[in-house]
Specification:
Blueprint: H1 24-34, E1 38-40, E2 47-49, H2 51-70, E3 74-75, E4 81-83, H3 84-87, H4 91-97, E5 102-106, E6 109-112, E7 115-118, E8 123-130, H5 135-142, E9 154-163, E10 177-187, H6 190-210, E11 216-220, E12 232-239, E13 245-255, H7 257-262, E14 265-267, E15 273-275, E16 277-284, H8 286-295, E17 312-316, H9 321-339, E18 345-347, H10 355-364, E19 369-373, H11 375-380, E20 382-387, H12 398-405, E21 406-410, H13 411-439, E22 441-443, H14 447-455, E23 461-465, H15 470-480, E24 483-488, E25 501-502, E26 509-510, E27 513-517
Parallel strand pairs: 3-9, 17-18, 17-19, 22-23
Antiparallel strand pairs: 1-2, 4-8, 5-8, 6-7, 9-10, 10-16, 11-12, 11-24, 12-13, 13-16, 14-15, 19-20, 20-21, 23-27, 24-27, 25-26
Helix pairs in contact: 2-6
Length: 520
């Protein structure tokens, strides 16, 4: 039985994708399932990333990795097991990750009374932590690499998996094991390390906006929200379609904390012995969650073309064997011409599936452009191009939008239009996300307005003055389920939010506003 066409597809949790308005959390999971991005593993809290989801991660990796190498970094790999004694050396770091650590205590199993158990004789002399992050073992390694200022800077990045034993998980956004990259750098001066921290935050913001089409606010975390063991944590914050914030990347200035814990010293140019300065920075497969929540719709996944594993899906339409021969020949020619433009093209020639079922599948997987080729197109010398996404227009219903997304063009014009269509879609997705963020952003000066925004108006990003302490920050979080997402950088503060004022909770003088929001 053929699958329903997109226009017929039901929008209820029982037999289709839940709408965003009905249940945003379930909608997210439905999109992940329909797009075949990932699924839950038999291991609690872990996920299986399916080929389509992993292909998106690979494209993100390439975009990031190219930028890392352009800025002078090299890839390396360090062990996933960290001796407990190393983890404990940096006290704040150990305390920050203590509740999330998975611990290995034995290295062998044995069978006893029909059960498989750890062999008591194989207990490790020292427990091993499965890395929640790699600062401790990397700095223990750096000790053998660094003797003088001539060995600095060291700029390395690692692509790997991480284990943080989360109790509440959600595919891509928060899982017990996830994929990420972690950069680790060593410098002769504090200023160099600070500049590195800021530089890499800029790289993340560039990828978020110009590749993912997600606008972000760059800023600093409050002391209570800093990375464990860091002197300063910088971040980028994006807004999802439910108005909540998502932390999409962090970059940390570590000062000399980890160098001191690992006793990593160097001789400077004047012959003075000093501890090395450090930074670390990372993003993870959480970025795929950001893509889903920032762009997708009630039909399924919407991907910015720069991250789409397949740019164009070609669907041949025919009824008779004679029509099939002619249509498939045209489809193969079209595929070759589009591939020659550097595009990733899929010719869907599967038998036993109706064209409508194929449309439904490729729309759900977020393929940016579909080319439909049938006998009538051959007669007229045209191709039908169907864009997965077009900017909504005021007062336009779904049927009208779908009609506008479809174009019948002369063949040569259609082939030449594919790249401009994709470029336009990339820009329009960023434009729409920026417009949405602006719509859900408020400059707020008092607590009643703050309460109204989050309790009655749906919330979003609130730019507020703040001069409270950590306890008062927690008090506000309990009352409104909000948190300070960042203390924004000067360049990211809109004109309406600039200047000094008074804290919305305490009334104390405040030099600048912070961004508060509900968050993932």
């Amino acid at each position: 039985m053929a699958q329903p066409t997109p226009a017929q597809q039901p929008k209820t949790a029982e037999d289709g994708i839940t709408t965003r308005a009905a249940d945003y959390g379930q909608w997210y999971l439905d999109v992940v399932k329909r797009a075949q991005l990932a699924e839950h593993s038999v291991v609690r809290g872990c996920m299986v990333i399916r080929p389509h989801g992993y292909a998106i991660w690979e494209k993100l990796q390439r975009e990031l990795d190219d930028r890392f190498k352009f800025t002078g970094h090299q890839n390396a790999y360090f062990p996933m097991f960290i001796p407990l004694s190393l983890m404990a050396k940096e006290e704040a770091h150990a305390a920050g990750f203590a509740k999330e650590c998975a611990v290995v205590t034995h290295y062998r199993l044995k069978s006893k009374d029909g059960k498989v158990i750890p062999d008591p004789d194989s207990q490790l002399d020292e427990p091993l932590i499965v890395r929640p992050t790699s600062e401790t073992i990397i700095w223990e390694t750096f000790k053998g690499w660094i003797q003088s200022y001539r060995d600095l800077p060291i700029l390395v990045n690692q692509w790997c998996n991480i284990v943080r034993w989360e109790m509440r998980t959600r595919l891509f956004l928060r899982t017990a094991e996830f994929l990420w990259q972690e950069g680790h750098t060593a410098h002769a001066t504090a200023q160099e390390a600070i500049e590195e921290t800021e530089r890499m935050l800029g790289v993340y913001a560039d990828v978020a906006e110009n590749v993912m089409a997600v606008p972000v606010i760059r800023g600093r975390k409050t002391p209570g929200e800093r990375f464990a063991g860091a002197l300063d944590t910088m971040c980028i914050e994006g807004m999802m379609q439910d108005g909540k914030a998502l932390q999409m990347g962090t970059s940390h200035y570590l000062g000399q904390n980890f160098a001191k814990s690992a006793d990593v010293k160097f001789l400077d140019a004047n012959g003075k012995l000093d501890y090395v300065y450090a930074s670390s920075w990372g993003v993870s497969t959480r970025l795929i969650g950001a893509l889903i929540m920032a762009h997708s719709d009630d039909t399924g996944l919407v991907l910015p073309p720069k991250l789409a594993p397949i740019h164009v899906a070609i669907v041949p339409i025919y009824k008779t064997p004679e029509e099939k021969i002619k249509v498939m020949a045209e489809a193969r020619t079209t595929m070759a011409e589009l591939k020659a433009q550097g595009l990733a093209v899929k010719l869907d020639g599967r038998e036993g599936l109706s064209p409508g079922a194929k449309y439904y599948e490729w729309e759900g997987k977020g393929v940016p452009l579909r080319v439909e080729i049938g006998p009538k197109d051959l007669e007229k010398g045209t191709l039908c191009l169907v864009r997965r996404f077009v900017l909504e227009q005021a007062g336009e219903d779904d049927k009208a939008r779908r009609k506008r997304a479809k174009s019948f063009l002369p063949r040569a014009e259609a082939i030449a239009s594919v790249k401009p269509f994709l470029d336009g879609m990339q820009k329009e997705l960023l434009e729409r996300a920026r417009a949405f963020r602006e719509k859900r952003t408020r400059v707020i000066d008092d607590l009643p307005a703050f309460e109204k925004f989050f309790k009655d108006e749906g919330g979003g990003f609130a730019w507020v003055h703040w001069a409270g302490d950590a306890a008062q920050e927690e008090e506000l979080a309990k009352r409104f389920e909000t948190s300070i997402r960042c203390i924004p950088l000067a360049d990211d503060i809109p004109a309406a939010a600039r200047g000094a004022g008074k804290c919305i909770l305490t009334g104390k003088p405040s030099a600048q506003r912070v961004v508060m929001s509900k968050a993932y």
